[in-house]
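Milestone 3.1: sequence recovery, worked example.
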């Protein structure tokens, strides 16, 4: 697929007004006009991930996060590596969190949740989580389902004796008590996120809401995969998930 069409297809997935208002939440780097034949996708952008993308002969690397500027020197390092490897990079942070096919929405879908609505607004226009329901199931069965989806160890804190039914999913960094409060006020019996802190554990116990914590990376990767699959659905483009630590 020609790069200009691929870029347009990617941008058309998101609300143009929101993209315009918060340009720092998404971006492209090292753009060149060429045919894109192989897309690599990952949650994060690090030197290790770029090296794996290079090994897999990726033309275009799609991530949720850009390299973090507060990891001092990482952004400059990654940009240099991308240029040397001739890889174009695009990231969509808040827009992907907010999308109907995004990070929390994709994890909720994998869990079998229905009647979902967006919750936990941030940056004025974006939402970071979803809340919905599943057929009631016991705590252990839900833990096994989430572990299977994430393919990793999941911290499990049981804080009530009811079946798991009404769930809030805040993929990635959803450990703030202000976000968890939204779930509690909506009557959620269970909260799923990708970051862990002492105060999130204490708040969940205080309000009687089960807490499940996977990794930041793996709770968000399904949304990145969904974005990549939409991008490649027309045209002969190969998709490759780039290996990364599940931090």
């Amino acid at each position: 697929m020609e790069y200009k069409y691929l870029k347009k297809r990617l941008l058309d997935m998101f609300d143009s007004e929101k993209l315009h208002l918060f340009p720092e939440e998404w971006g492209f780097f090292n753009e060149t006009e060429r045919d894109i034949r192989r897309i690599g996708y990952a949650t994060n952008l690090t030197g290790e991930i770029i090296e794996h993308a290079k090994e897999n002969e990726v033309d275009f690397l799609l991530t949720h996060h850009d390299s973090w500027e507060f990891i001092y020197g990482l952004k400059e390092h990654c940009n240099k590596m991308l240029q040397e490897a001739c890889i174009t990079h695009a990231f969509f942070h808040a827009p992907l969190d907010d999308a109907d096919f995004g990070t929390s929405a994709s994890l909720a879908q994998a869990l079998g949740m229905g009647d979902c609505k967006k919750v936990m607004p941030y940056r004025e226009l974006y939402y970071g989580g979803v809340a919905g329901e599943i057929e009631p199931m016991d705590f252990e069965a839900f833990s096994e389902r989430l572990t299977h989806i994430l393919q990793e160890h999941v911290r499990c804190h049981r804080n009530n004796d009811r079946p798991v039914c009404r769930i809030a999913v805040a993929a990635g960094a959803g450990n703030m008590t202000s976000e968890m409060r939204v779930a509690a006020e909506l009557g959620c019996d269970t909260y799923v996120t990708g970051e862990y802190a002492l105060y999130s554990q204490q708040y969940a116990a205080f309000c009687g809401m089960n807490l499940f914590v996977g990794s930041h990376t793996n709770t968000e990767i399904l949304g990145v995969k969904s974005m990549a699959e939409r991008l490649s659905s027309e045209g002969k483009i190969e998709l490759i998930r780039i290996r990364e630590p599940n931090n």
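The longest helix spans residues 216-232. The longest strand covers residues 126-137.
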